[in-house]
Amino acid sequence: xxxxxxxxxxxxxKSARSRILICGYYGEHNLGDDALxxxxxxxxxxxxxxxxxxxxxxxxxxxxxxxxxxxxxxxxAVLKEVRHVDAVILGGGSLLQDSTSTRSLIYYxxxxxxxKILQKPVFLWAxxxxxxxxxxxxxxxxxxxxxxxxASWRDPGSLQQAENWSLDIPMAIGPDxxxxxxxxxxxxxxxxxxxxxxxxxxxxxxWEKLVNALSQFSEKHDFNVVWLAFHGQQDAELFTHLCxxxxxxxxxxxxxxxxxxxxxxxxQKLFSESxxxxxxxxxxxxxxAVGGVPTSALSYDPKVSAAAELAGLTCCELxxxxxxxxxxxxxxxxxxxxxxxxxxDSLALDATIHSKNLNQQLQSLLAD
Length: 368
Fold this sequence. Notes:
By secondary structure, the chain is an alpha/beta fold. The chain has 16 helices and 14 strands. It has helices spanning 31-43, 57-63, 75-82, 102-117, 135-145, 156-164, 204-221, 232-235, 238-244, 250-255, 264-272, 282-289, 302-311, 324-335, 341-351, 353-366; strands spanning 19-26, 49-54, 68-71, 87-90, 93-96, 122-129, 150-153, 171-173, 191-195, 224-229, 256-260, 276-279, 295-299, 314-317. Mean pLDDT is 92; it is low at 1-17.
């Protein structure tokens, strides 16, 4: 699907501002959110001093040493900080959803209403809207979004939901901002990199089928297999658990190495020196593809399949009844057809719509 580059900007004559609170799942050792923050900070224009919500402040400071931070795990601290900034940004991802927990949703709703009460503008940047499984959640988010200043959405479904609610705010749509992240050139290599995560979509039987296909594929091509934990806390023990459940063939276990990701630079270097990446993690998929690395998706969530479809990458839905041969065929096809530079450049350009929309809105706040 092609994204429109058009945006609508509201006029404003508010006085100059300087400090801006950027809220998201930062400093949680999830490199996908780190990549989003990196893009946002690099593309933020104007006289702004960012204040970042972060659990591990050292992780954020390793990317941006000069930024201020506030403990994102302390709602009270974050709500207090709203008083001391001039605007609030909800950074990329799907923050307004109740599938992780209702508590997470309430956190961001309270943040938006706190800003509304203090008359601070709120901007949604590259958001995915939902999933919202509960009727009360949908009603709460609908009411809350009517108070924000502008929004940009990363997928058509989110925009459609916002339009169904008749939100009278400037809105834009574009691919995930990480499509505009820089990447080293692909050098190729002899490692197959997996960015897999635990998922309730796969029973032991489902994992066995997936791992057996992987074993056959890696043995056929004599690949070393790197299990890259893209989210340190969630992914690091996956390979160990599969081995403990006797789901990993001996030959695959011999070929396998577990690596915990600790920086975007490390991950991109590993990708650039690999033969191929098979990713469940959305931003692992994107970071590999923008470097021209042959990449295939395993989708546990519609956002993953949507990104793969947008870029023309092969994708297998984990909710489907997958055969080992189908998986092997898809991976073989992906290995032969990396994303071409023209397609990467087009996606990168389209993905800048989020920051263009945001910067135009922020500029109106700085105008006298």
